[in-house]
Amino acid sequence: MNTPSTPLPGGTWDLGELSVSRFGYGAMQLAGPGVMGPPTDRDAALAVLRAAVDLGITHIDTAGAYGPRFTNQLIREALHPYPPELHLVTKVGADRDRNGGWPPAREPEDLRRAVHENLDDLGLDVLDLVNLRLGDAQGPRPGSLAAPLAALVELQQQGLIRHLGVSNATAEQVAEARAMAPIVCVQNMYNLAHRRDDELIDELAGQGVAYVPFFPLGGFSPLQSSSLSAVADRLDATPMSVALAWLLRRSPNILLIPGTSSRAHLRENAAGAGLRLSTEDLAELDGIGR
Ligand SMILES: NC(=O)c1ccc[n+]([C@@H]2O[C@H](COP(=O)([O-])OP(=O)(O)OC[C@H]3O[C@@H](n4cnc5c(N)ncnc54)[C@H](OP(=O)(O)O)[C@@H]3O)[C@@H](O)[C@H]2O)c1
């Protein structure tokens, strides 16, 4: 691993015994259109992954469902053998259908298959962290996660998984999971404009559990808000930088995994997340999602 010339904003966080940069990278945008198929520009995708590691990023978020499988195979091609500091976090619990949909796949057999596919595609003997992805593309759905989580705990006991997390989960499901097994992170949708998990974030912070917001920049529809634009203009920064810097400030347990298929955006985001926000900026931004 290269020694980055500038430290990443936010410092580090411990997922169990695994130290990761709070500024991480989400690999979903590397697959083809609609997160299906191989990337349009394969060399560019490989270069983004290598640039992430060169920047000092030690947390890459992925899933077998991206591509499906292409994204994990790209990660392996770009970065294997992995530097010891790098931790790959994957998700299981959703498949892909012919229309690009994300049908749930949470039967024990689906989860076993998904874990083995992730191991094969990433070229690993053990997965550092596996998130059980719940709900559906519209968001979390209530209901017990006991059966699918028990299947993952069994795979963990077999030595195939180091740590477990949950994703797209309700607060009740997070509590149920934490009563069953040590859970090191929750990965849910959250950003300046979507703040349903405010209480959950604070609760998890108090218990030393990471919260990893997906769609930190709004996902497929970029964040748009006049307050966000006003703060960005005042600071001569992009709205993306402000949104990421706000998340880092929001709570120490928040880990960033902004997605991009562009090296320029990756570098811009890494620098921008270090933007200093004044009390006045924070108060104005705080009003957006409330
Ligand atoms: N657990 C789950 O259910 C779940 C669901 C969704 C996502 N995720 C994870 O969360 C990660 C982040 O989510 P995401 O990638 O969907 O959404 P995101 O990070 O909110 O936004 C990504 C979008 O922003 C654009 N972008 C990034 N930086 C930019 C910049 N500096 N200037 C202009 N545009 C910029 C990207 O386009 P370019 O490619 O052009 O930069 C892309 O279209 C994913 O990669 C994935 O790992 C998890």
Automatic annotation (TrEMBL):
The keyword GTP-binding does not apply. Gene3D superfamilies: NADP-dependent oxidoreductase domain. Residues 24-288 form the NADP-dependent oxidoreductase domain. The keyword Oxidoreductase applies. Keywords: Oxidoreductase. It comes from the Bacteria. Coiled coil: none annotated. InterPro entries: AKR, Aldo-Keto_reductase, NAD(P)_OxRdtase_dom_sf, NADP_OxRdtase_dom. This is Oxidoreductase. It comes from Streptomonospora nanhaiensis.
